[in-house]
Write a structure and sequence with these properties.
homodimer; about 280 residues; alpha/beta; Arc Repressor Mutant, subunit A; Rossmann fold; 6-stranded mixed β-sheet; 3-stranded antiparallel β-sheet; 13 strands; DNA-binding (chains A, B); WH-like_DNA-bd_sf (chains A, B); Pur/Pyrimidine_PRTase (chains A, B)
């Protein structure tokens, strides 16, 4: 009996982690293990306690015939900020200054484990936003967007600059890049977004906010609405930003190409209390 | 005592799943739980049995003072083929035929859970390849590449068509797209790939193989070597392919735009025994 419980706990833990934000009925687990619902219910209680204690996430349980359990990945404010602070320190390494005053971040974005962790911060922050799709801009927003979407159990819609023909008809809009003032085009395949969608925008970098503004406008073209926006890094910008409702994980206040000095700190998420509690 | 073991099993399961292909010492777990190494060792034995029985993966254990455990995500041939067959059936839906004879796949690629599952097939297949980095081509190869890389605990290097200036100096090569015969350029940031890397190429679609061939040539420019290549879908192509050593998960043998008929079946991975056992 002791071993059977052990086996169930291990398998249920794996199953719940792999199915975030999906309601799993007690009946499912009870049949999977040939165990009484009361035993399964006890198992869930144990897992719930460990998940909460270790900061893995919450298990929302519902009672009754349709009773079930739903795993909500979370990250505490302390853990989130510690993780972000750690990345900020890495980003202040002088060798990251690139010609033109850019900051090399591709090693951070190219690290799937980091992206999963940062994605969990956003998944935790936006879990109550009611989003039913995550939208991002190719290329560098994609890894973070997938990390967020996988933990919220949502599909991803990828907006692109070029107009590829391999995805059927597109909706395209022109937008003004806020920092360079250039007119650019962004496109999204018509099939990628259903009318009436609730969109969570995730991107890697924001300066004046032109790209995010563009994605908001594009969302309207699909008779859909934006329920939140999160960026990995925002650059402090001299002029007014083109968007207001967004959160950033990090803030870049300056890259001094000559002195090779970079100032990065925690972003707006850590400046005020969580929005969607 | 019973509860303490339960708690350890749940937390260890979560920890191991989140750290695939990373050796974790018994000492680490023993200190994390304030438990004797012998107890931790017993816990690992229980988890190992469940992971194997449920097809979650293998736990490789090493004994001695430096003793530890390493989680290798795997998927059985049967489970892999069942998953792929299921996607093939979905892809044969006539409404997926696009003008020009293309096949709409963005909903599959836009589903993070699917990508994780397909990534696990490749992670299982290539786990002994000795790769130390996953390379892919923007845009649509990225989700699968990250899914593979996260389960092999490797970084991702993203090759791109455009020459963005925000990642420092680039290495660019011209290559001939095998199907359209057009000359194109692909670039990779110099910092994205260390000399002497062992590269696993992952991409979404292959027709004549020009893009994969290009990535192989680009890898050589970095004094690195390709240890494997995997594509989500290969199109059966009238001419000789430009690459030989690759595996595909699915094979597209025809899109009949007029009759709205699509023929998709399991790819070359399922035509012969696994290569890297």
């Amino acid at each position: 009996m002791k071993y059977r419980r052990s086996g169930r706990l291990i398998d249920m833990t794996e199953y719940l982690l792999r199915h975030p934000h999906q309601s799993v009925s007690l009946t499912f687990f009870s049949e999977r293990y040939g165990a009484a619902k009361s035993s399964v219910s006890e198992d869930i209680g144990i897992i719930k306690e460990v998940f909460e204690q270790k900061g893995i996430g919450r298990l929302a349980t519902s009672a009754g015939v349709t009773g079930g359990v739903l795993f909500v990945p979370t990250m505490t404010d302390e853990a989130s900020e510690a993780l972000v602070q750690d990345i900020c320190r890495q980003l202040e390494e002088p060798s990251r200054v690139l010609p033109g005053g850019y900051l090399y971040m591709m090693d951070i974005i190219g690290d799937p484990e980091r992206m999963q962790q940062l994605g969990r911060i956003f998944a935790s922050y936006f879990h109550g936003s009611g989003a039913d799709v995550v939208m991002t801009m190719a290329t560098k927003g994609i890894p973070l967007a997938y990390a967020v979407a996988s933990q919220l159990h949502l599909p991803v819609a990828i907006v692109r600059h070029e107009q590829r023909v391999t995805e059927g008809s597109l909706v395209s809009i022109n937008y003004v890049s806020g920092s360079s003032r250039r007119i650019q085009t962004m496109s999204l395949s018509k099939r990628s977004l259903k009318e009436g969608s609730r969109v969570l925008i995730i991107d890697d970098f924001m300066k004046a906010g032109g790209t995010i503004r563009g994605m908001m406008d594009l969302t309207e073209e699909f008779q859909s609405s934006v329920v939140g926006a999160g960026v990995l890094m925002e650059a402090v910008h001299e002029h007014e930003k083109l968007v207001e409702d967004y959160v950033s994980l990090m803030q870049l206040s300056g890259v001094d190409a000559r002195g090779r000095r970079i100032d990065v700190g925690p972003g707006s998420m850590f400046h005020h209390a969580a929005q969607y509690e």
